[in-house]
Amino acid sequence: EEWPRPTKAERLEKKLAPGERLVPVPVDEHLLHQYKPKTRVNVSLPNEVLARLDQYRAETGEDRSALLAAGAELLLTQRGA
């Protein structure tokens, strides 16, 4: 489902009650990543790599797919792709 387009602050300010104000809230880019559209894929990994990945995620509580996506992003960034 698509999100509606954001409303400009100037338009929102006109609807505020006396004493109310808009407060900008910074958004962590890591949180936005989880809301991007995703596609399911099958991936084959060496057993020892999968074991290390699962050990790491057991210790951190992170999601396997999110870790693989973050690793792919990091590699692509390092390689300038």
Describe the structure.
The mean pLDDT is 90. The longest helix is centred in the C-terminal third of the chain and has 15 residues, at 64-78. Helices cover 48% and strands 0% of the residues. The chain is built from 4 helices and no strands. It is elongated and about 60 Å long. It is an all-alpha fold and 81 residues long.
Q: In whole angstroms, how far apart are the ends?
A: 29 Å
Total beta strand runs: 0
What's the story with the biggest beta sheet? Answer: none
What gross morphology would you assign? elongated
| Mean pLDDT value | 90
Round the Cα radius of gyration to an integer and report it.
20 Å
Unreliable residue stretches: none
Proportion of residues in helical segments: 40-55%
User: Number of helix segments?
Assistant: 4
Structural class of the secondary elements?
Answer: mainly alpha
Order of helices and strands: HHHH
SS strand fraction: under 5%
Q: Which structural traits does this protein have?
A:
81 residues; elongated; mainly alpha; single chain
Quick recap:
With 81 residues, the protein is mainly alpha-helical. The protein has helices spanning 9-13, 29-33, 47-60, 64-78.
Write the layout of secondary structure elements.
Layout: H1 9-13, H2 29-33, H3 47-60, H4 64-78
